[in-house]
Amino acid sequence: MRRPPTLRTIEVFASIQGEGLRLGEPTIFVRLAGCNLRCSFCDTKFAWGRGRARSVADIMAEVRALWRDSPARWVCLTGGEALRQPVAPLIRALRKDGLNVQVETNGTYAPQPEADWYTVSPKPPDYEAHPLFRKKAREVKLVVSRHLTAGAVRAVRRAFPARTPVILQPQGNARWSMRKAVRLLEEASRQGLGNIRIGVQLHKIYGLK
Ligand code: SF4
Given 53, 65, 131, 153, which residue has the most CB atoms within 10 angstroms? Predict the structure, then answer.
């Protein structure tokens, strides 16, 4: 008998979306295990490990239990890198229950269909994303690390349609990174680049998970 497909998972929890355009919305997070990159500034290094193999039904049961006590209408698949694993059956199951699904990805894998919202966060050194994300990304997030340059902001801005916002997100809300985000925004504006904004990690300010 074929075993049901599993996803290697780190944790499932209810919180608030602290980043990007969905900032402040109650959200249930499914953090998947493993990442194909090793960014020095990664704030979820604990997700690089193998995690625990869980069936889609098992993950759904935990999401439903959290959902009962939460006003969340969104589930965010995050990581690590969420798209390293075949998440389409989980996305289908979540949407069948009436939940909206956001996927946070570094953009190096192809999108898996059916998600309601892709947040693409290209990473150094090349800041490239799979070409299918050009149309599918609802927002693009750039961590304002020591690596990020005005040239990289320009290249990423040009790689995505003008309607897709590019958000400069300070690394861990550090002051130096916030100052750099403002400088990069001003520089981009001088270069005539539009639809770029600065962001924050709201969950860290509020002391949430
Ligand atoms: S892509 Fe994201 S999860 Fe992976 S190492 Fe970089 S910051 Fe961490």
Answer: 153
- How far does the centroid of ligand 1 lie from the alpha carbon of residue 47, in Å? 9
Compute, in angstroms, the gap from residue 159 CA to the centroid of ligand 1.
20
Q: Tell me the per-residue pLDDT of 157-205, one tens digit each, with 9 for 90 and over.
A: 999 999 999 999 999 999 999 999 999 999 999 999 999 999 999 999 9
Rounded-to-integer distance, Cα 78 and Cα 20, Å = 13
Structure tokens of 37?
A: 């990159």
pTM above 0.85, yes or no: yes
Which atom of ligand 1 approaches the CA of 38 most closely?
A: 5
125 Cα: distance to centroid of ligand 1 (angstroms): 12
What is the enclosing helix (H) or strand (E) of 180? Answer: helix 175-190
